[in-house]
Amino acid sequence: MTTRATSTLEKMFLKGTPESILKHIQSHKILAPSVVLKIAVPLLKTKLSASQRLTILEQVTISALHDQQITLAESTLTEICGIAGKNSQRYRKLLALCLESQANYEKALEIYDAMLEDNNSNIYALKRKYCILRAEINDIEARKCLNDYLERNASDAAGWEEMAKTCMENGDYQGASFCYEEVILFSPTDSSIHCTLGELYVSVGGKENYTLARKHFAQCLEFDGSCVRAMYGLISASEHFLDVAGGGNVSKKSKGYVDEEETEMVKDLKRHAISLLRESYQGTGLSAALLESILAL
């Protein structure tokens, strides 16, 4: 919910009709269950068209679940069933939500699975199924479900970020880095994502990954020059790269394993990161000796 949407809602309370307020809440996906119930429940007692009544009943059902008014939700759901039919998508979605609210995940999953049998690209059913599997800590099935969702909706940045977090929880840092590379396509100037990607590449290890880590830490510092995490990360990635590249080992140089220009560039980057780190700690009370001991670790 944006600040603008909230501000508009406040203005509508002063001069808007109940129908326009409910429509605004629905179209902007504003989570305001108490407001919806206060306006919509009395409205259901007035004369409405069939489509209007069904839409408002749906809003009341969802808001009642958010407000933990299960009896009200069950009452409106029964009326929806009578209007739309028990096999309608609208009724089945709301029934599954009611079952979820009662922690009856098994029955809810049966409904979502049935919806997916009817249409295996049902984004809503895939999302809800994933949420249930995550709640039940069924990591393998949850990742499979989320993967199915992303195959059908690859432009969902939040979905890729959720998959990245799931991978990290399971120690799959390579998979998490792939997911965050997808996320960065949607937010190329987000310094925190660049920093997280850098840390993941350092965790995976290997010369190429240390190079990628270095680039992302440098990118993070370009967007946010005060990010201490990225400073430490750049130092760490540079040190690991120099260790893997062979440093001053002559035998490795003779095999073409070390690019001397790149090695010097990495050393310069490390010195630059250390300089930034020292500047960032100036005036903070951290003694120079303590900082040097930290950098020596």
Tell me briefly what this model is.
78% of the residues lie in helices and 0% in strands.
Percent helix: over 70%
Radius of gyration: 27 Å
Number of helical stretches of at least 4 residues:
17
Distance between termini?
45 Å
Rough shape? elongated
Helix/strand/pairing category:
mainly alpha
- Biggest beta sheet attributes: none
- Indicate the low-confidence ranges by residue numbers: 250-256
Count the strands? Answer: 0
Helix-strand pattern: HHHHHHHHHHHHHHHHH
How would you characterize this protein structure?
With 297 residues, the protein is an all-alpha fold. Helix content is 78%, strand content 0%. It contains 17 helices and no strands. Helix 4 (50-66) runs antiparallel to helix 5 (70-84), helix 4 packs parallel to helix 6 and helix 11 (173-186) packs antiparallel against helix 12 (191-204).
List the helices and strands and how they pair.
Layout: H1 3-15, H2 18-27, H3 33-43, H4 50-66, H5 70-84, H6 89-101, H7 105-118, H8 123-135, H9 139-152, H10 157-169, H11 173-186, H12 191-204, H13 207-223, H14 228-245, H15 250-254, H16 260-281, H17 288-295
